[in-house]
UniProtKB/TrEMBL annotation:
This is Glycosyltransferase family 92 protein. The keyword Glycosyltransferase applies. GO terms for molecular function: glycosyltransferase activity. Pfam families: Glyco_transf_92. It comes from the Eukaryota. It is an enzyme of class 2 (transferase). Its EC number is 2.4.1.-.
Length: 426
């Protein structure tokens, strides 16, 4: 009778409109005496009978105060979805879900989405899942997500973290990754969050080291098991179901994951580095910016390209390790006033509702563009335009003021991991 009751509730709702409703179905507590019966095994969970993918669930105390399930949906194929709650001390419930597909998708059919689940009074939700109105759906066999952010601390344990977008394609740039991790530790970042699809065997060793050290949180991101992810930008040029390995979903998930852990989140790619120019750490930088702009929720940091064709700076001892040596790149491309700026963002996660890659699409605060003489995003890359010469580039040794710490600390890690045996010779 439990299954029949579940199906009848689904049929009685208008199946062509997925909106918040005050109607709900209540299961008897004895029917779900152990709730949930099943929890989702991986980071990504397919919703049976639909094209939707669930990622994680968070309690959101802002605005409409709902359970927000970070998800991926096909914007061309909509299916009515329903939220199934597990409650402590009360009966479990089913309510219609509100699906908010994000407006930025770069033309790909699958897009980041928020699935909002509105709990009924008296239901202290511990777990939630999403279901479709299918006759053979058994609520007892649904995979549930644990609801995170249920308890909110008034003071945050950390000040700032870095959310790195997906690592994929057997990425194996050991030296640059170690330099990046050691650099952020120097700047006062206690933990970096990385979403991992695949990496090379050498880098896997590095990830394990930093995870055991406690400075890296690796989130499994098997998006390629569910969709065909594009590894680039333009839909016309790259086949795929979703933009850039699902980066939009990753960024929004990481904001919710860290909403009540710390004050700020830096959203950046694996190969990008936030370099302060006027400060030696990130806390005084952010305190100064927030003091000048008390209503700001988003701070844009300019991205500057350091082309690989510019030549080396002569710091080659660490090149024995596999990968790019950031200290070798001291020439950056000039940035003209009308050039496109692929800026990265430091955000207050409690004031951001939805974000895209280069813009926050919904927030509660102001946006500030940070002058590049305070800080910049450094990105080593192949020159996008041919025939760059050093005379055409700008000498920029901002990173060098940190090298007296960076070189020996990176050497120490590389030796511990067995990547080369000789110390840097000062």
């Amino acid at each position: 009778c439990l299954v029949i009751q579940f199906v009848m509730v689904m049929i009685n709702h208008d199946l062509h409109e997925v909106t918040h409703s005050t109607q709900s179905c209540t299961f008897h507590p004895s029917a779900l005496s152990t709730c949930p019966v099943h929890t989702a095994n991986g980071t990504i969970t397919a919703v049976k009978g639909s094209t939707a993918l669930m990622v994680s669930a968070y309690k959101d105390y802002r605005g409409q105060r709902a359970i927000c399930i970070i998800a991926v949906v096909n914007r061309h194929q909509t299916t009515p979805l329903y939220c199934v709650f597990c409650c402590t001390g009360e009966a479990s419930q089913v309510t219609p879900a509100t699906v908010l597909a994000h407006s930025v998708h770069y033309g790909y059919p699958y897009v980041a989405a928020d699935i909002l689940c509105f709990e009924r009074p008296g239901c202290n939700v511990t777990h939630v899942t999403v279901a479709t109105p299918i006759e053979d759906m058994d609520p007892l066999n649904l995979p549930f997500l644990s609801v995170q952010n249920r308890e909110v601390e008034e003071e945050f344990p950390f000040y700032l973290t870095v959310c790195m977008s997906s690592m994929f394609g057997d990425y194996n740039n050991v030296l640059q990754f170690v330099q990046t991790m050691e650099f952020y530790k120097l700047l006062g970042v206690p933990r970096v969050v990385l979403y991992l699809t695949s990496c090379g065997p050498d880098l896997e060793k590095v990830l394990q080291y930093y995870t055991e050290e406690g400075t890296l949180e690796v989130i499994d991101w098997p998006i390629d098991h569910f969709l065909k992810p594009a590894t680039g930008w333009e839909l016309e040029e790259l086949e795929g179901d979703i933009h850039l390995n699902g980066q939009l979903t990753i960024m929004n998930e990481c904001i919710y994951r860290n909403m009540y852990r710390l004050r700020y989140v830096l959203l950046a790619d694996v190969e990008q580095l936030l370099v302060p120019v006027a400060h030696n750490s990130l806390q005084p930088l952010m305190e100064g910016l927030q003091g000048q702009h008390p209503d700001a929720a988003v701070f844009f940091m300019e991205t500057h390209l350091f082309p690989a064709t510019a030549g080396k700076a002569g710091l080659s001892a660490q090149s024995r390790a596999l990968g790019v040596n950031l200290l070798d790149y001291v020439y950056r491309e000039p940035l003209e006033e009308d050039d496109f700026r692929s800026d990265k963002m430091v955000v207050n996660p409690r004031k951001v509702l939805q974000t895209a890659i280069f813009e926050v699409t919904q927030s509660y605060g102001d946006t500030v563009r940070v002058p590049f003489d305070l800080c910049k995003i450094m990105q080593v890359t192949e020159a996008p335009r041919e025939n760059w010469t050093n005379d055409q580039l700008v000498l920029d040794r901002s990173l060098w003021k940190f090298r007296d710490y960076l070189v020996p600390s990176v050497d120490d890690i590389l030796q511990k991991l067995g990547f080369y045996k000789h110390l840097f010779e000062h």
